[in-house]
Amino acid sequence: xxxxxxxxxxPYPADIEATPIGQSxxxxxxxxxxxxxPMVRAGYLRDSWRSEGRGRGVEPFVPVDWEQAIxxxxxxxxxxxxxxxxxxxxxxxxxxxxxxxFHHAQSQVHRFLNLFGGYTRSVxxxxxxxxxxxxxxxxxxxxxxxxxxxxTSEDVARHTKTMLLFGGSAMxxxxxxxxxxxxxxxxxxxxxxxxxxxxxINVSPVRDDIADxxxxxxxxxxxxxxxxxxxxxxxxxxxxDLHDRxxxxxxxxxxxxxxxxxxxxxxxxxxxxxxxxxxAGIPADEIRAMARTLASGRSILGISWSLQRQxxxxxxxxxxxxxxxxxxxIGLPGxxxxxxxxxxxxxxxxxxxxxPFRFASLPQGVxxxxxxxxxxxxxxxxxxxxxxxxxxxxxxxYPDVRLIYWAGGNPFHHHQDLNRLRRAWSRPETIxxxxxFWTATARHADIVFPASVPLERNDFGGGSDDVxxxxxxQAVAEYADGRSDFAIFTRLAARLxxxxxxxxxxxxxxxVRHLYATTRDNAAAQGIELPPFEEFWAGAQFHFGDQVDDQxxxxxxxxxxxxxxxxRTPSGRIEIFSATIEAFAYEDCRxxxxxxxxxxxxxxxxFPLHLVSNQPRTRLHSQFDHADVSRAxxxxxxxxxxxxxxxxxxxxxxxxxxxxxxNGRGACLAGLKCATGLARGTVELPTGAWYQxxxxxxxxxxxxxxxxxxxTPDRGTSRLAQGPTAHSCMVEVEAYAQELPExxxxxxxxxxxxxxxxxxxxxx
Length: 764
Fold this sequence. Notes:
It contains 25 helices and 26 strands. It is globular.
């Protein structure tokens, strides 16, 4: 700190490979894009809930004081509850989990809405929805538990000969960890595996899904073809009698139902290596040779989260489990499947030591409303109230949502088909947002409360998969007239008559002390000593890993004794065939894994390039897109599109120019970069550029900043999980010859005085 400002961001000594993203904290109080005080959309200030929702993102804002903003929000909440019921309120939050144990936006908004009488909620995540639904059916293990029990790098270095990683294991994703991360060490661990002689194969259209220093082989497959490759490997194992019959018999159920499909007996199509090669673009001989290699020694199959964000995204996770079962190495050290290996840091890189106690967090209470949607179906909900959909064996009816309260997250970043979302977003009567920055979500709200950022609050950090706990002391004053989510909800709760229930009589520091004391008690019950609060608060991050025993993973217990440690599936075994799923009678997700043709590929003649919209390297999702670390990677102020040089040449394009990326759903601008590390016919445009329409009045307007989600489809993975399908997306690219639109996302939006709102309220 220097003169009340952040002057440098330095890592703890344990953080040997600190993430560059941390330097973005230097711009945490950028006046260009911080929200300085409560704001109300001009038309909403004039007409309240009767205003035209199409004015969101179009009309100017009116700065108001806290009293007026609180009164408007309280009136809107009360009206919707009293006239339509609490299920007409959607509690949106997708806040990342490293904001602290107390100031976690999701906990704050859900606690507030539960005390108000409840709300329609969402289930699953944009990150891994299909896997979250399918894997409990197949292995009976909650998905997030499964991914944190990936084979450790120590076991890999000691036991493993071959790692076949579908979707790779990108180092950029290991910069982050839910709840915070005490020390980045994934790079050092990868070097140890490399030095141990482990053979690594990256099955991905993107070569740098594995770091260059690993020395991995690259299978540049066609995007969305992974299940075909897995089936080709499985067919070779079966045909050459390399599969582990004993493992399949003792630990699995249903292989006999899958076998006729694999061989082609049931449909006339053998899922051979030749069949797979024609789909995936990987030579059949290489597929056959790899099957033999995997069966010849200890091997790991890895699968990235990206593979299930596609049409039929449940299938890759189910099929890779079947392939591993055929190899018979599930539950062995350094063998089986690494689910989500490196998708965030401690998935595979935390070793066997995880906290055996629960970190306390702000209690959310009980939601009296039993209405929910799969999280990525929010636009469907808004556009089609009363419509029913299938989800995981149930029928769900979309509620008629009249009010959205969003705190934590940016749906105009992580949702698909943003032009469709804009149309849906105009439907509710009121949208209230707590947000520090002028993101597109804030710009498309009616009432905006200026929220604080972690540097402006007191809290402590820690998570269920890391052996560090860290004080998060307030470093700078709250920006302008901003407030923490807790302070905002406290004022709203006071206006609505339940302040004491919301705060329980505690202020910020009293809550921090209380949650830390609860955490310390939970740790002590497991024989782990954390320092007293005053010592902790005055010091640095605290490492307690030396007090934690090595953990035995669930699948290791299962392998040692499948009867005593039966899985929580109907059979107690690995379900290669699921009678439960078969009984759902979903044509797009039957009782065993299978290949489904891709609807997106039907667009290939008109839009021949497959878009990979992966996670960015320079920010976490869309967070701090305005900061120097993120902006330094842009071209002409726009997100960078990578394309194979041959595809660039075919279109007469040049590196460094701005191009138009388009399909039938929309179009965006991006800066072009040549990259030999992409499969031919594949382009890469990372997510997270703050959405900016060239003509805000037009929902189909050109997006000028490089947000790929104007291009991605808003369809569910299948009737089972209804997850997002962003990676099933075809596009075309052409030169943009017109004058470049200005990027204004990192500047304050237009504001007007209250008296001007009467005449500048926008469309009615």
